[in-house]
């Protein structure tokens, strides 16, 4: 049976209390240190906002579907065939360690386009987790999102 999986999943332990890790995704003043460059506001259930990656001139609409404090964040983001759902699950292992799982699912495409979106999602959220870990644990900005698609290479396409 050759069935295509319609989700990407990545996870990592972050050596910070769950409250700090959770807040890093709720508060754009923190999130902009490791992921996007601008947000129209903090995440709140039922809120619609925009995230921007200035280096790519990219703005994505975000609808916040559910937030359970220090446990779960679920959003829908993107438009048309590029719309999908993202779920963050925060597990407090102990006072100083949080295990975070990010699952991106409900992609709207199929075939090669779905395969491409799944690869990009897995890579992108792996970078997000690594950038988050570096920022929260060591206050180091890795610039992984910016360097994932350097402007110099994009200009050659």
Task: Please explain how this structure is put together.
There is one protein chain. By secondary structure, the protein is an alpha+beta fold. The protein has a single domain (9-156), classed as START domain (Alpha-D-Glucose-1,6-Bisphosphate, Chain A, domain 4, 2-Layer Sandwich), CATH 3.30.530. It has 5 helices and 7 strands. It has helices at 18-26, 28-31, 111-138, 144-148, 151-156, and strands at 7-14, 38-39, 48-53, 58-68, 72-77, 84-94, 97-105. It has a 7-stranded antiparallel β-sheet, with helices on one face. A hairpin with a 2-residue loop joins strand 6 (84-94) and strand 7. It is globular. It starts with 6 loop residues before the first strand and ends with a helix.
Overall residue-averaged pLDDT value: 92
Q: Report the helical percentage.
A: 25-40%
- Could you tell me how far the N terminus lies from the C terminus, measured between alpha carbons in angstroms? 37 Å
- Uncertain parts: none
Just name the CATH architecture.
2-Layer Sandwich
CATH topology-level name: Alpha-D-Glucose-1,6-Bisphosphate, Chain A, domain 4
Put simply, the count of helices is: 5
Domain count, please report it.
Answer: 1
Order of secondary-structure elements: EHHEEEEEEHHH
Number of strands: 7
> CATH-wise, what's the superfamily?
START domain
Helix-and-strand structural type: alpha+beta
> Main sheet, how many strands, which sense, barrel?
7 strands, antiparallel
CATH class annotation: Alpha Beta
Specify the overall morphology.
globular
What percentage of amino acids are in beta strands? 25-35%
What spatial order of strands do you see in the largest sheet?
1-7-6-5-4-3-2
Radius of gyration: 16 Å
């Amino acid at each position: 049976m050759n069935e295509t999986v319609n989700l990407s999943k990545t996870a990592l332990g972050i050596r910070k209390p769950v409250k700090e890790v959770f807040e890093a995704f709720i508060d754009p003043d923190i999130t902009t240190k490791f992921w996007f460059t601008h947000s129209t506001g903090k995440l709140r259930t039922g809120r619609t906002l925009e995230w921007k990656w200035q280096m790519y001139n990219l703005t994505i609409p975000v609808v916040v579907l559910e937030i359970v404090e220090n446990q779960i964040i679920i959003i829908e983001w993107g438009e048309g065939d590029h719309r999908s759902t993202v779920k963050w699950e925060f597990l407090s292992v102990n006072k100083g360690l949080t295990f975070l799982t990010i699952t991106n699912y409900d992609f709207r495409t199929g075939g090669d386009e779905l395969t491409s979106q799944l690869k990009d999602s897995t890579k992108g959220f792996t970078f997000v987790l690594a950038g988050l870990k570096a920022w929260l644990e060591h206050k180091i900005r890795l610039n992984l999102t910016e360097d994932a698609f350097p402007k110099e290479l994009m200009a050659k396409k």
